[in-house]
Design a protein that fits this description.
By secondary structure, this protein is α/β, with parallel strands linked by helices. The chain has 18 helices and eleven strands.
């Protein structure tokens, strides 16, 4: 507590935030003064200056303001020492509780994760010497043979190819998709085009690959989300599930029983009803990731998240959310896939581009990948539409590509429409090439039809 007060007083005295920014100090280091810490940070983000003492004390009149004579490095060392002590105490108590409940494996994993986290706590700005540190070459080699350690399929093989970060031995076998460490993908479309459907298809695919999936749904209930996920995995008609059609009961029960019997990773759904007060912020998403140990997070959607920092305009609020989501992705090093509305503007050529991301240009700035959706040629008799996935931004290549699918959302089917010269390798040819180079098996479910149908 003393070191936290000293740090805040030093910042206010010097009207300088560098003690925090230069030493990687987050709110976790200010567990007893979290509100005071966040007030100073938010004031600085909004006005670009640290608040003066009068302003600060008017908000926190009970704060014990002291004169600080200790040097900065002493204060930082004490903050880190106190943080480690509190963290180890919490970890010890949680580990003890798991042991008492007979959860030995979870207790062991908790201790391993805790030790790893503590070992990564450092002070000062860290950087990499690209000449002396050549460990990236080892990671390059690892990526060439262990796709599933670095990438998750989007559920659209053709999209995975276009977003490919690797091409093993120049064979044409693309091994890309969602980057497991650095992906901040945004799916945009106008209302009713299918943003949430595509988002949940990707979520179902991530689960089939064995990942711990988290979904934030700002509008639908957990049941509705579950029904859609069920359709994408089992291909049972979503309309029949939703309206309680007994015609599919036997098939649906067999699928549900198979879920109960599986030891697969979970799919966790968070809705506003699960949060006190019903307000979900980016900090709530962070707690969601940490509590459920998520490996990938899907967010539906940007404008349904709350942000309490004072801003003058809506685009500033959305921009701040976009920035915080990107910071969350970097901090947790898991992919975050979000949905956002598309505005009605188009560029001079009438094509979709990043200016169509509604709310704030910062969404497109912070996104690693942006995929815009379009619907055309509805076939009401066969319940299908033509859905186009337009890659309008891809950090590592693949942008300015359009992929078309005949889509039936009701049974969760997407059939690719090949275009001559599009550079997409057929799934059969891709598998034959992959087999010829004997890639490492992921050991996960890759054909849901064979398991659940």
């Amino acid at each position: 507590m003393v070191s936290q007060v000293q740090a805040l007083c030093r910042i206010l005295d010097k009207k300088d935030l560098s003690l925090i920014t230069n030493n990687n100090l987050t709110e976790e280091f200010f567990s007893d003064t979290k509100a005071e810490y966040n007030f100073i940070k938010q004031h600085y983000e909004m006005y670009k200056v640290v608040p003066d003492k009068v302003t600060f004390l008017s908000v926190f009149p009970d704060f014990s303001y002291v004169e600080v004579r200790e040097p900065d490095n002493f204060i930082v060392e004490q903050l880190i020492q106190d943080y480690k002590a509190n963290y180890m105490a919490t970890m010890w108590n949680e580990g003890k509780r798991k042991l008492e409940n007979g959860e030995y494996a979870k207790a062991e994993q908790l201790l391993k994760d805790g030790a790893e986290k503590l070992s990564k706590i450092t002070t000062g700005i860290q950087c990499t010497d690209l000449i002396k540190d050549t460990s990236r070459y080892d990671r390059y080699l690892e990526k060439s043979v262990q796709k599933n350690k670095y990438y998750i399929s989007t559920g659209f093989p053709e999209l995975d190819q276009k977003l490919s970060r690797t091409d093993k031995n120049n064979t044409g076998v693309s091994e890309g998709g969602i980057d497991m460490l650095e992906e901040n993908m945004v799916i945009i479309a106008r209302t009713g085009v299918g943003k949430t459907q595509v988002l949940l298809k990707m979520a179902a695919e991530a689960w089939l690959e064995g990942k711990r999936v988290g979904i934030y749904e700002g509008e639908m209930t957990a049941d509705k989300v579950g029904y859609r996920i069920d359709t994408f995995i089992s291909h049972i008609q979503n309309s029949s599930i939703n309206r309680g059609d007994l015609f599919v009961q036997q098939r649906y029960k067999a699928y549900i029983d198979s879920l109960k019997a599986t030891e697969h990773a979970p799919i966790k759904v968070l809705t506003p009803n699960d949060v006190p007060g019903g307000e979900v912020t980016v900090d709530t998403l962070k707690a969601f990731i940490e509590k459920e140990n998520l490996e990938i997070l899907f967010v539906d959607q940007y404008d349904l998240l709350e942000e309490h920092t004072y801003v003058k305009a809506e685009h500033e609020r959305v921009g701040l959310i976009a920035k915080k989501i990107k910071q969350l992705q970097v901090e947790k090093q898991i992919p975050i896939i979000s949905v956002c509305q598309m505005n009605r503007t188009k560029n001079e050529d009438g094509e979709q581009d990043t200016t169509q991301v509604a709310g704030s240009d910062k969404i497109s700035r912070y996104a690693t990948t942006i995929i815009a959706l379009e619907q055309k040629n509805p076939d009401y008799e066969n319940h299908t539409i033509e859905l186009t996935l337009n890659i309008i931004k891809a950090r590592d290549g693949g942008d300015h590509n359009k992929l078309k699918y005949t889509t039936d959302f009701n049974i969760g089917r997407f059939n690719y429409i090949p275009v001559s010269g599009d550079g997409v390798t057929s799934s059969e040819d891709q598998q034959n090439l992959a087999d010829s180079y004997a890639p490492v098996s992921s050991g996960t479910i890759t054909n849901p039809d064979s398991v659940f149908n």
